[in-house]
Specification:
With 205 residues, the protein is mostly helical. The protein is built from 10 helices and no strands. The chain has 2 domains: 51 residues, Orthogonal Bundle (Arc Repressor Mutant, subunit A); 134 residues, Tetracycline Repressor, domain 2 (Orthogonal Bundle), CATH 1.10.357.10. The chain is elongated, with a radius of gyration of 19 Å.
Length: 205
């Protein structure tokens, strides 16, 4: 029982450490900041993970397996088509904490450090590649089933989708009103609805 409590306490501290990076960014976060927020000592961090970069990489992997895994759920359905892509974007209308204020840790990282640190760049690139592949696969299925026009280009739809995700997460972190996010999502839904064959109705609301 004691081991379970200790593991739970560590998980909580790791989530707090993730939020520090999420709020401040990689470069503006110090080990002292992490220790102050989480209670994890410098010795524990360096002894367990080697250095700040490796600790951050572990937290990115943790973020991918928790927040992103849940967020990707509609897209990862075995028979996902554009209905699920629309459901995926609908999630931006009601984001959970702390994503509703901090945005996406992967997207923040992609603009801040990925070009300078190759190991982190690979993590972020894999995330964006997975997102693109899932949207593309959903579009291919929709085209095979006649749910979109036969001329629909899955690569173009996937690139648009990834761009829309990056734009939406940037809006979330900005001082723009929440209504701006709804308007952006409306635009994405209109785009998706416009891919349907003529006379087949509209997109998801």
């Amino acid at each position: 029982m004691r081991n379970i409590r200790q593991a739970s306490r560590l998980e909580h501290r790791l989530d707090k450490a993730m939020e520090v990076f999420w709020e401040k960014g990689y470069y503006d976060t110090s080990i002292a900041d992490i220790s102050a927020r989480t209670g994890l000592s410098r010795d524990v961090i360096y002894g367990g993970y080697g250095n700040k970069k490796k600790f951050f990489e572990m937290l990115l992997a943790r973020y991918r397996s928790t927040y992103v895994a849940e967020w990707f759920t509609p897209l990862e359905m075995p028979d996902a088509t554009l209905v699920q892509v629309a459901a995926f974007f609908h999630q931006f209308r009601n984001l959970p904490e702390p994503a509703d204020k901090l945005g996406c840790l992967m997207c923040v990282t992609s603009s801040e450090v990925s070009a300078q640190v190759r190991s982190i760049e690979r993590i972020v690139s894999r995330f964006l590649g997975d997102l693109r592949s899932l949207i593309r696969a959903a579009c291919v299925r929709a085209r095979e089933r006649g749910e979109v026009r036969p001329t629909t280009d899955p690569d173009a739809v996937a690139d648009y989708g990834v761009g829309a995700v990056l734009g939406l997460w940037a809006l979330v972190r900005s001082p723009m009103p929440r209504s701006a996010i709804d308007h952006y999502v409306n635009g994405v839904q209109t785009f998706l609805g416009g891919l349907r064959p003529a006379g087949d109705g509209g997109g998801e609301g």
